[in-house]
Records
---
Amino acid sequence: MNYKWRALALLWVAFFLQQGTRQIFGATLSSIQGSLGVTAAQIGMVATVFTFAYGLSVPFAGVTADLLNRKWMVVSGVFVFCLGIFCSGFVSSLGLLLVTYGILNGFGQSFYYPSATSIIGELHKETRATALSILQMGLYAGIIGCSAASGFLAEGGAEGWRLPFKIFGGIGVLWAVVLALGLRSGKLAFKGGVGERNLEQFNSPTRNSNSNSKPSLKEAFTVFIANPSALMLAAGLGMMIYVDVGFKTWMPNHLQEQFGVAKGSAALNAVLWHYLGAFVGVTLGGRISDRLVARRPSIRMETNIAGLALAVPFIVWMAYAPSLWVCGVAMALFGVFRGVYDSNLMAALFDIIPPRYHASGAGIMLSCAFVFGSTSPVVLGILKDRFSSTVGLASLAGFYLVGAAIIFAARYRAFGRQRSYAG
């Protein structure tokens, strides 16, 4: 197998574990809440701490990946977050869970995505959106598989929720070894290509630097902040992450309470239909944008806009669905358009920033998004305590709409000046 596809396969499994282990918490939330004896707002704090820790760490992880070796950033990240997941299966208090799942897991997961996507971005030129879309499928498969397994394991007694943390965490620690053996230690070469030749408004931070030099932390932040399109994409992603974290945290619990579904079935149904729909959306979105980008350079941002805007009515329908099957249909359609957005999530960013800043740019963008999105589990927990989970889930539609509007502004106000920086 060609190395670029073999590397994608290795990173796909790691992404499966990264995203799948995140959903263990949502799938077993009600069991953990009962076992530890805490309120909805308190248990929501665990997901908030994780998301906030991830958001704070990821820009530094991205910049570090541009400075150091991206292979070892991926390997160490997978090892650290899977160790945190494994240890979460042994905790006896909310405080310890905040440390293992919230801080250690969040810190370790921040190492993975910027480095992995930049490795794929460099290995895949003409097939970039397709490759990143395939990687995105690891997210869907991981969430569905780990959520279903976790939900059913949690039904095996009051302490059954601990098993999935131990099982998937242990598998992940072993996969870190596989990554260490299977990935090459190649480094990004900055050859001064088309992206470097067109950095007109970034002359200040780059004009006196060697084209093969590594970007500094200050330089990476300066370039990103000076790019209005990148800032708007980060804000749009923040809206999406707010919805995603809140949805994955509270949807299993909503199905249990609203429709009387058992824990295992609720954990499966909460993600299965949504991510099957997303699988369709990400496949179509990636292939279409790759085919059209040569003739229409703005297609990747326009795909982002369409994905967020068209999902809005289905989020509301999902929250107020009168039956489980209607809710499943709504989640699936919500997922289709979420997948359309996902298909060009990083490809759109890589179109407007130079290759030397791909990992650091991805890290900064994810940081802005996850710090904002970290508030969602607690906010929805408060809304659930005061009103209902229906009200909280329906409120998510507004954030998708705002995200679409922000990226719309990025496309029509700044894109034309900043395209051509991609390598």
---
Amino acid sequence: MNEKRNVYIIYGFLESGKSQFINFTVSQDYFKQDEPTLIIQCEEGEVEYDETELKSLNTYLETVEEYDEFNPEKLEELAKKYDADRIIIEYNGMWNAKDIEERMPLDWAIRQQITIIDGVTFETYVANMRSLFAEMIRNSEMCIMNRCHDVDKLNGYKRTIKSLNTGIETVFEDEEGEIDLPLTDEDLPYDLKADLVEIKPEDYGIFYLDVWDNPDRYAGKRFHIQTLVMKEPRLPKNFFVAGRPAMTCCADDLVFMGLICKSKEAKNLVDKNTVDMIVSIVKEYRSDYGGEGPVLYAESCVKTAPMKDPVVNMV
């Protein structure tokens, strides 16, 4: 037995394909191990588990349907019942994922979190249950959208998902299970072929998401852009974070969509200054990003009048 139990959490609304995904995963050679695996199912959909087949894979199924029972004592009791080294949790889509770690035993270590989405019902759930959806995506390293019918909408869907978690990996599947459905480049509201690319205030959200998703296509180009200033004490004195607050869920749920910016004017700026800049973009490693990411290098940086509405609406 490892010192910590390894936990994999699968999020998604009812009938999104969570059970189907788990059934497929536990049957794969790369997922097999000698130690027992426990599946904790928190809601039952159309697809049922074959417990006889699971046992042949040294995998066992338990159900926790009441939220109050999803607590450290109950979960540890189930794990000890099978001496399970690995736990897969099929989480209930109607339970808020925000505090999921607090409801687990201390010796459980979350190794991966994945959100499964039904492409047919995506727009309905996002419109009516956005706060629940947002917490799933924020927790996850990967999002798999299945049953994709309308390829033309996928860029918009991807933008919605990335607005909640810029680092998430998104995979699309059609009804035959073909992974990574080909996506055409979305029509951007600015001209990347221009000598100086104009980023209008209303286009900042698309710019921010696309520069993270496709940093190479922005590298070396020059941009005219207005942002707010956020001073980060950990950054050198000639750096600041340039960005805009964004509403990704509701009015009470703002995130700062910011990019690290180097400017000789940084020392003269304070939080919430509005700046008008001409910048170039370099993809480089930054410990602040935890890896490679887009960094703005300001050719000019001038304080200007505050924006009329600095909040980017991603809802």
---
Amino acid sequence: MRLARYMALIGCLWLTGLPAAMGSDSFPSRPLTMLLGFNPGGSTDMQAQVLAEIMAEELGQPVELLYYQGQGGGNAAAMLAASQDGGHVFQYGHASPFLITPLISDTSFALDSYRFVAGVLEAQFAFVTGPDTPFSTWDEMIAYGREQGELTYATQSPYDRFVIESIMREEGIAVRVLPTTGGASMAPMIINGDAHFGISGGTHTAYTDNGDMRLLASPNRDRLMAYPEVPTLSELGYAIEVLSYRVLAVPADTPEEHVIRLSAAAKRATEDQRFIEVAESRTKMPVVFVGEEELNMVFAEQVRLFIEALEAR
């Protein structure tokens, strides 16, 4: 039933935006809250702090960060869906909690619970391992997993867990999942060898230069900007390609002019050298600006492909 509902929804997602109530008040009329679905210390937090500063300057109101970790951003997404604050509360982070989590988990929200204000970065996901694991490439890890019969995996979200479990099922390897609350809690598990490998949305950039993390592969459609030597999963023979953005999202009934105002502030941030520096130099993610209409088309295609993968299981 859930899949059938989503198939109906993605048929119209390409439209500029889901219907929103119109408002006449001056926006923003009070301080704003940026929801983050992870603990402080990871790449999302590093970017959000600068993004909030620039957006506050543009909007003329403070933008406070609120950390509400769990389910790879899904807990924060549930909080956002219930918000009645007309865009004064918005979420920043990966798109997967909005798109994929409702397909594979029982949630209080769905695809049509949100509008996607803007994408500001192209996500750079990587599968990482620590400095002392007995493998240094993806193929070596698969061979090791077959020999041992099991691999341990540090995961941040239901989506990447689904991807890894599907791959390891194909490879005939059992996987023991170790949940994390984001990059900040994933890092010590990888570095200390508590997990054979894990997923990183950007935290790895702080650990690769000194060798504390090594990159095995990326699920991205294209090779990583800062690590062009790392193969993609599709290059390794898996039918998986991810084109994902870090986005700002608001509840679906947010007034149109509020969405427009937030979008303009986000665009201003992507042109600010402070945000470009933290994004591209520190967290090594390319800055982009993607508007709501284009995001809806990209996300509709991602959901369609994911539904096909679920139905093929």
---
Amino acid sequence: MIHAQVIGSGGYSPEKVIANDYFENLVENADEWIFSRTGIRERRFAADDQATSDLATIAARNALQSAGISADEIDCIVLGTSTPDMCLPPSACIVQHNIGAKNAVSFDINAVCSSFVFAMEVADNFICSGKYKTVMAIGADTYSRILDFKDKNTCTLFGDGAGAAILRVSDAPDKGILSTYMRSDGSGWPLIQVPSSGSRKPISSETIAERENTFKMAGKQVYVFATEVIPEIITELCKRAGVEPNDLTYIIPHQANIRMIDFIAKKFGYDKERFLLNLDRCGNTSAASVALVLAENMNNGTIKPGDLVLTMGFGGGLSWGGLLIRF
């Protein structure tokens, strides 16, 4: 039976560090206020001359180095992002050009914060169908470009970054992606949006004045949504792979809020050490969130051969899902 095996990964966080005290103009005792509510101490913002494809390019090159392969071995590049360089062309094509992946078909997908796990699902399907042998999945976002810096409830949460994973065909029956689970509920689309950013309400001087060209989120409703679907993701992935939730070595959740991670731990009786996190250092990096943590822990030796790792994302759309991977 064909499986998709993760053979390498790479990440990139911009150099510009934004500590919580950056937001003192919005809230008194910003560090305590933000950390107590989210678990975030700092995040990274892209430089003025860096776009999403620039972050993704560095992550992609690091992933190639990790996998020990050349760019011309890549058959397909799937870039998950909700902050592309521009509405067209696909940012994936810019990354393809930058890394010299001349043989790769390249395209973007957008499932907001779920984008990387959705990109991994697409990559897995391409490989398991026999269509491609080597696929690169990328999650990258530069939310610093779309935040409303007058809204303390959203602008304090996000950072920029990119992560990439390379999947390759394998016939090892007990190694690679064991199960996937993807869902969406379009009735919740208004909860996470940039109202003026496309054909429904094109950007104009009026929408800019109303700050409708910036990120909006109904935080309380999104929290309720996330805590409802997180147990569903874990239970369904384990069921499909024929394992128990307690069999998991590590969990890489979307790095949204420490309270959500506390909820998972209490719900399933997990120790905090089972969760791999960079939330305190990177904030919520949207599509890059899971990808960055995966790359960091594959390359620093935390994730070892034989480990069973569950990754999950949830976000706008509404969208949610995950993958179960045996390394």
